[in-house]
Every structure is written in C-alpha cells, then in structure tokens.
Predict the structure of Polysaccharide biosynthesis protein.
Amino acid sequence: MPRLASDADGTSRPDRSWTNGLALSISAALSAGAGMLSWVLAARFVSPTAVGEVSAFVSGFLLVAGLTEFNLGVALMRWVPTGGRRVAALVGRSLLGATIATAIVAPLYLLLPGTEVIRQAAGGGAPAVAVFVLAAVGWSTLHLLDFIMVAVDKPWWSVARNLLLGSSRITILLLLGAGADATALLWAWVGPIVACAVVFGIAAVVVTVRHGRAAAESSNLPARREVVGFLGPTWVGSLALALLYHQVPLLITFRFGPDVGGRFFIVWQAVAVIDIVATYFVSSLSSTVARNPGRIVTQARRALRRLLALFLPALAIGAVFAGPLLGIFGPQYVELTSALRILLAGAAARLIVVHVLGVRQAIGDATGFARPHIAVAATTLASLAVVPTVAGNVALSAAWVFVGVHIVAAATLLSTQPARVRAIAPQQVPKGKLDA
C-alpha cells in the first residue's frame, strides 16, 4: 500500500514521491544504460578519434538543449498539478518556447571557436548545421516530455520512451557495424531522437488535454512575476549544470584533440550517467512538494536515504571493477582506470550536492539553487582550462579537479541547508502545517 500524505488542507492522498522518483530514475537509467552500450559499440567499431568527433557532436546538441530548456521541466512539475483547465495551454506554450529558443541558439553555438569538430562529424556545411539543430530540438522536446508526464501522473511513459529510443539506437549501430564513419554513426542518435520526439510529443498533447478536461475549473497558476522569479535563477542553475555535463568533455576535445577527447568522454560518461539519474530521482520532489507542501522535511529526508541506498553501492561496485568495465570499450581505454575511480569518488560527494539543490528547487529557493550550480560549473571549467596534466594524463588531472570541487561543495551545502529550508519553506505552507 502506498503511504498517505496530508495536504495543507488536510486532504489525504498517496505519496507519489517514491513512484515518481523511481519512474524518473528508471527512465534515466535506461537512457544511460542504452547510451553506455551505444558508446561501447561505437568504440568497438571506430577509432578513438572518430569516437571523439561523434561524442563532440552529441555533447554539443545536448548542451544546447540544456541551455534552452529554461528549467521548464521542473517548473511544470510544480505548476501542472494545480493548473486546472489551463494545463494544456501551459504545456503547449512551454514546448513551443523551448523549441523556438533551441532552433535559434543551436546554429549560433556552432559559430564558437573549436566547434569545427562538431560540424566535421556531420559532414560539414549547411547540412551539418541542419542536422545539429534537428537533434537539439528533438532532445529538448524529449527532456520536457519526461517531466510533463510525471506532472500529469503518467511517469511510466518516460520509461517506455527511453526503452524505445535506446533500443532503436542500438539496433541502428549494429546494422551499421564496423567500418562506419562518424557521419553515419551520428544517425543512430539523431534518427531515433527525432522520431520519438514526434510520436511521444503527439501522445503528450493528447494526455495533457484529457488531464485538463478532467481537472477542476479553477486554477492556481503563478503570476508572471513569480514565474520569472523562479525560472530566471533556476534556469541559470540548470545552464550551469548543462555546462558541467557537456562542456567538460567538449573542453577536453577542443584543448587536446578528438583522440584524447574521445577517451576522456568514455570515463566522463560514468559521472554524467550517475548524476543524471540521481538528478531525475530528486527532481520528483518538485511534484510531490507541490501536492503536499507541509511535508517538505520528511519528504527530503526520505529522498536522501533512498538516493544513497540506490547509488552508493553502484559507485562502490564501479570502483572495484573499473578496469574490466573500461576493457569492454577496448584495450586503449583501460589506461584510464585510475581516473575513473577518482571520478566515482567525486560522484559520491556529488550525490549530496544533487540532493541539497534538489530540495532547494522543490521549495522554490531559486537563488539557493542557482548559485552553487554556477560556482561548481565555473570552478570546474576554469580549472580544466588551465590545470597542467598529471604525468601527461589528461583524464587523471580532470578527475582530481572534479573530486576536489565536489568535496568542498558538498561540505559547504550541508552546513547551510537547514537554515535555507527553515527560511524558505514556511512561505509556502499555512501557519502550523510545516513538518519541520
């Protein structure tokens, strides 16, 4: 039986935090698992240089999609549950706005220095730009759809979408086989993304319209000032998060070339995968807190226990078997075993960072969410831009930067979290209803 939670008005309803968090985590895990298997196949089929070119293209469109999503996914999880009949319009405008922004930013990003490797991976010229824009728009749409489905109580749709997307990509890679060039491999990513964005986008519109028709006539959507006050700072925070995920491997590729960048990208995926899955899990707090604002402290503590129980064993196993795991990609990647172990230690510290900032986002502490993200991303990227390599090992240098930054960040955030929750949370809850 699901636990029952009481809203501020005394209404009892099932606590969806575990179900929503689990569905989002499974969805992200499927995406990550399929992504890792895809890179295993790519590493087996082509050289590290080609892997570096393809990974630069993929990191580039993922970064653009992250920059132009404006944190609308989490915002929709906060506002859709109380949106009433206006839900469909809210979702439609969000999808349209993100699509337009992505289509504008994507070609501009390809004008930046160092992005030649991205255009070359797609064959160069105007067609390469068009493919890049298509991939970025498709991914931005899919990312928003995951959160929309949670907001309308359909979290397992995201799992189905990622299962279809991942299996399609792997099938295409297997059909291409050894000897495929970087441009051909790209379609294993771009084709399924565009197809799933169209199919699941239509499905989301239908589900959202039905949800709106069944909702109450009244709505409790935020005023424009509140929307800007939340989206502005949290978008800056999510922008910093996108830079950390995707600009880090791009920086290594731009600085040291696609061969070194391709090798580093493989070990960096371990951190990115764990972080994305953990972030999805904690993001479900936004939807749960919107429904049950008086139980913020209890929900946050429960989410932390579950987060650590799910991820710490996986990190330990990864550290023990780091060498054999890298050997799956090919013998040329095994030399990065030490770097992978250090990165996994940093990922353990980052779990605390992810949880603390997830709680701040759920309670609407936009500034408290954005500033640490900016500090972490800026410090990491600035350090990687100038840090010398350790005995010529670029990945090892990057790993030490990552673990050092996140140990400091975790300790700092833990010491300040209780005060911020006490200061922000009561503003959302009727007097005497907060469980703190």
Q: What stands out?
A: Confidence is low (pLDDT under 50) at residues 1-14, 429-434.
